[in-house]
Amino acid sequence: MSDLLRLEGVSKRFGEFVAVHDVTLFIPAGRLTAIIGPNGAGKTTVINLATGALAPDAGAIRFKGDPVTHLSIHDRVRRGLSRSFQIMNIFPRLTVLQNVLLPVLCRRGRTGVALTPVEGEREAVAEVERILGEIGLLDQRDAPAGALSHGDQRLLELGIAIAPGPELCFLDEPSAGLTPVERATVLELIRKLFAERHTTFVIVEHDMDVVFSLSDWIVVMNRGRVLAEGPPAEIRENREVREVYLGEELTA
Which residues contact 191 (CB under 8 A, 6 or more apart)? Predict the structure, then answer.
């Protein structure tokens, strides 16, 4: 596997608090990776550093071999990086279709065309409808996004994340707040997109059922550092990981 993303000796502090300390992490193409750890371990900060929401205090970040440490968020999106958010991040007053149309138009370079009616963007709308079909929301294309159930809003956010056509997509707690049925739907969708779109996903999760049923590789963080990484079976048996974080959850 070739590395899509490389974080090399990356650190980030907020005042006296060191959120991420000297983290080196390689994300290869074609592997579904999970990042786990207790609250405050630095998981979301790693996503923010990788996607450009935060600048590192030290270290370097490369995407597809090119340095991106100082690139803006939108430049990284154009290169093939995207993400979803731990806290729901949709446009509730826009329709479901319009929410996904925005990143599609951006990728097509059409967001700067003033006063162009959406009806004139037939190819973009057709692409959005295909995405909505993939995520199971085509029948709600004209509904306000804010009127969707929490589970459907999570699906919509996933649709927004894949709309730029990323090669690498970070999902920050995609099953947060979902019922068991909704969680199963989201998991199956991630598997489907991973297989059919050939998108490499990195998920940050607290739900161990999600982590061990979905991922090929697990990175465990604690206090801003990488504590361990490896395939699920190896992480399940790692004594230090058990002591620090997982405990009896692994034997359940």
Answer: 214
Please give the model's pTM, rounded to 2 decimal places. 0.88
- Which residues, in sequence order, are CB contacts of 202 under 8 Å at separation 6+? 27, 32, 33, 34, 35, 47, 168, 169, 170, 171
**Phi, psi torsion values for 147, nearest 5 degrees:** -90, -5
Residue 156 buriedness (CB in 10 A; 0-12 / 13-18 / 19+) = buried
Task: State the architecture of 3-251 in CATH terms.
Answer: 3-Layer(aba) Sandwich (3.40)
Residue 110, helix vs strand vs coil: coil
| 129-182 residue pLDDT tens | 999 999 999 999 999 999 999 999 999 999 999 999 999 999 998 888 888 888
Determine the Cα–Cα distance for residues 113 and 103; give it in Å rounded to an integer: 14
Query: What does the pLDDT read at residue 242?
Result: 85
Half-sphere exposure of 62 (CA within 13 A, CB side): 13
Q: What are 3's two structure tokens?
A: 């590395």
Distance of CA 208 to the CA centre of its chain: 17
Encode pLDDT of 200-217 as tens digits: 999 998 888 888 888 999
Work out the burial of residue 114: count CB atoms within 10 Å of its CB; fewer than 13 is exposed, 13-18 middle, 19 or more buried: exposed
175 contacts: CB under 8 Å, gap ≥ 6: 154, 182, 183, 186, 187, 205, 207, 210
* H-assigned helices in 144-247: 150-162, 180-196, 208-214, 232-236, 239-241
Strands 33-36 and 200-204: parallel
Whole-number Å distance between alpha carbons of 159 and 43: 22
Show me where the domains of the chain are located.
Answer: 3-251
Which residues touch 33 (CB under 8 Å, ≥6 apart)?
A: 27, 200, 201, 202, 203, 215, 216, 217, 218, 219
